[in-house]
Design a protein that fits this description.
Elements: E1 8-12, H1 19-29, E2 33-38, H2 44-60, E3 66-71, H3 78-90, E4 95-100, E5 103-105, H4 109-119, E6 126-130, E7 147-150, E8 158-161, H5 162-168, H6 179-187, H7 192-211, H8 220-228, E9 232-236, E10 241-243, H9 260-265, H10 288-295, H11 299-314, H12 323-330
Parallel strand pairs: 1-2, 1-4, 2-3, 6-9
Antiparallel strand pairs: 4-8, 5-10, 6-8, 7-9
Helix pairs in contact: 1-2, 7-8, 7-11
Length: 335
């Protein structure tokens, strides 16, 4: 059986239950080179969980595969494990595919990424290849090609190129200090509500980077980077990644399917793509409105977020921290 030659990166932390299912897909794909990037726990209990994960993943890799391990000795947090981890990989590889420990890929995800990485390698309009499609099946909506393009954040399972990722991915959101880029970011949105929602998330991420980087994530930097650089992602017409990490130890994906936003983004079924792929004739962006309706939180979520942001500003609170948590601290109710 032919091996899959594009390097695959698997980000790990404390979650072990999902790994056999993910590794089974990697095994079937005959992944030739696998990077294991694993964070370390923040306390003794978490360190024990991390130890279980590291032993399990190394045991599960039972095919002919070059394994490269990048294990943290101290806790990095999500940004430094994933964002900085991707940069570490791109010091060694020209291109790679990235999965987190709750990203269960469809088998066709790998040849799809391989073909897109080759086709758009030199196209400076394209920053990454996405595995997620929150629409589920664009072909069922009448779309006649195997993929389309988008500036939306679809972060579960992705691929990119070292040259473009290292140049354009603004991991520390330094571009927020550039007024021209801030204006470009604002002007890139057709929907003011989505801009307000994602701008709050970007500013919250920036605050965490500056005040408590271990709590900062990596994904809203991609939103900012796509939009200020006028770039796009390639999105498969059929969803290729199922998020199977809705549990008590989820870092930022949601802890229960009872949450309306978690329900929209997680446990979405995958569907195989057909090959040969059908390519759109140009840079087709047909589903921004449909994706906006999924990504945009319900009104009461957005109102609550706006009020919280205003109160934090008025009370000179940290944008990256929960309003209620900071209020409890000020009132001495956190003891």
């Amino acid at each position: 059986m032919v091996s899959f030659r594009v390097p695959v990166v698997l980000f790990l932390f404390r979650r072990s239950e999902t790994l056999p299912r993910i590794v089974s897909v990697l095994r079937d794909a005959r992944v030739e080179k696998l990077y294991l990037i694993c964070d370390q726990g923040r306390n003794e209990t978490e360190r024990e969980q991390v130890g279980v994960v590291r032993r399990l993943i190394e045991k599960e890799i039972d095919w002919d595969c070059e394994v490269v391990k990048y294990y943290a000795e101290e806790n990095r947090g999500v940004l430094r494990n994933i964002g900085d981890g991707a940069r570490w990989v791109f010091q060694r590889e020209e291109q790679a595919i990235f999965l987190e420990d709750d990203n269960l890929p469809e088998a066709t995800f790998f040849p799809f990424c391989e073909e897109m990485l080759h086709r758009y390698k030199d196209d400076d309009r394209i920053l990454w290849v996405c595995g997620s499609n929150y629409l589920g099946d664009a072909e069922a909506l009448g779309y006649n090609h195997s993929y389309f393009f988008s500036q939306m954040l679809l972060p579960c399972g992705w691929a990119s190129w070292a040259k473009k990722f290292n140049e354009f991915y603004d991991d520390r959101l330094a571009g927020l200090d550039d007024s021209a880029k801030v204006i470009d970011f604002r002007n890139s949105y057709d929907d003011n509500r989505l801009f307000a929602q994602e701008n709050r998330s970007v500013l919250r991420t920036k605050s965490r980077i500056e005040n408590d980087i271990a709590r900062a994530s990596w994904d809203y930097q991609m939103v900012f980077s796509l939009r200020v650089n006028h770039m796009y992602g390639v999105v498969p017409s059929k969803n290729q990644i199922r998020n199977i990490g809705v549990d008590a130890i989820s870092e930022h994906g949601g802890n229960t399917m009872k949450n309306v936003m978690t329900e929209r983004f997680c446990e979405n079924e995958t569907l195989p793509l057909s090959f040969p792929l059908s390519h759109p004739s140009g840079l087709s962006v047909p589903f921004e409105d449909s994706l906006t309706s999924i990504i945009l939180a319900p009104l009461h979520y957005r109102v609550r977020g706006s009020i919280g942001a205003l109160l934090k500003k008025a009370l000179r609170m940290n944008e990256g921290e929960s309003f209620l948590l900071q209020l409890k601290k000020r009132l001495g109710m956190d003891r």
